[in-house]
Design a protein that fits this description.
It contains five helices and eleven strands. With 216 residues, it is of the alpha+beta class. The protein has one domain.
Length: 216
C-alpha cells in the first residue's frame, strides 16, 4: 500500500511548481449540505469550523489543539464526470455508516454553476508522488491528508482549492473549495431541494441502489 508521509514545509513545497486544473466558469458542481446539527450551513456557505472529519479540511486548531471557528472555510462538492453527482455526494457524505438518513440534521442537495473559473490543485495524477505524497492522499488517513491540505493552502496562495478523485465515488472528480473561492459561487443555484423532498425520491432511490447504501 502506498505510504503517505508527513508533508514538507510550505516553503519547501512552494519551490515545486504545482499541477493545476482550471475549471471553467459555468461548470456544474453538486453538494449535500446540512441545514441543521451542530454546524449548519446554507448551500453557498463554507464551513469555518474545523478541522472536522473531512479529508481536506485546511483549518488550524486552537491553542488547546482542538477544532475551532476560524478564517479558513471549506466547501466540498462533486464534479460533473463519472457516476451521477447525487450518487457521489451520497457515497461521500454517508460513508461512515453507509446508511442514508434524509432527515437527520436536515440534509439538502444542491447543484450550482460556477460564476468564474477556478484554479485547483490537481491531485488526480502523478504530481502527488513528485510532491512527496502518494495516491494515498485521496484514500488514506484523513488527519494526514489534512496536514497536506494545510501545507498546500500555505504553499500555493493563489489556488481556489483542490480537485481529487473520490475514493468512495468511483474516482469521480470531487473538489474541496477554500474560502478563497467564495466569489465563484453564483447568486442562486440551479437545483436546491431537501434530500427528504418528494422531488428527489426517485433519484435518491436509484443513487442508493447504485452505491449499495441502505436508506432510513
Amino acid at each position: 500500500m502506498a505510504k503517505l508521509p508527513n508533508p514538507p514545509s510550505p516553503s519547501s513545497l512552494a519551490a515545486l511548481d504545482p499541477e493545476l486544473h482550471v475549471l471553467p466558469a459555468g461548470s456544474p458542481l453538486a453538494r449535500i449540505f446540512f441545514r441543521g446539527g451542530a454546524h449548519p450551513v446554507d448551500w453557498d456557505e463554507f464551513r469555518h469550523w474545523g478541522p472536522a472529519g473531512s479529508r481536506f479540511d485546511h483549518h488550524t486548531r486552537d491553542a488547546a489543539g482542538l477544532p475551532c471557528v476560524g478564517p479558513r472555510g471549506i466547501l466540498y462538492a462533486a464534479g460533473n464526470t463519472g457516476p451521477g453527482a447525487l450518487a457521489v455526494c451520497l457515497a461521500e457524505v454517508f460513508q461512515n455508516t453507509r446508511i442514508i438518513d434524509d432527515r437527520d440534521r436536515e440534509p439538502w442537495f444542491v447543484i450550482f454553476d460556477t460564476a468564474r473559473e477556478l484554479t485547483l490543485l490537481d491531485l488526480r495524477g502523478i504530481w502527488t508522488t513528485k510532491a512527496g505524497a502518494s495516491a494515498a492522499i485521496n484514500s488514506g488517513p484523513k488527519r494526514r491528508a489534512q496536514d497536506w491540505s494545510r501545507t498546500f493552502y500555505e504553499a500555493y496562495p493563489k489556488i481556489d482549492g483542490i480537485i481529487y478523485p473520490s475514493s468512495m465515488g468511483g474516482n469521480a472528480d470531487a473538489v474541496a473549495l477554500h474560502e478563497r473561492a467564495k466569489s465563484a459561487l453564483p447568486v442562486r443555484p440551479r437545483f436546491h431541494r431537501a434530500l427528504s423532498g418528494r422531488e428527489l425520491r426517485p433519484a435518491l432511490a436509484r443513487a442508493a441502489e447504485a452505491i449499495g447504501y441502505a436508506r432510513i
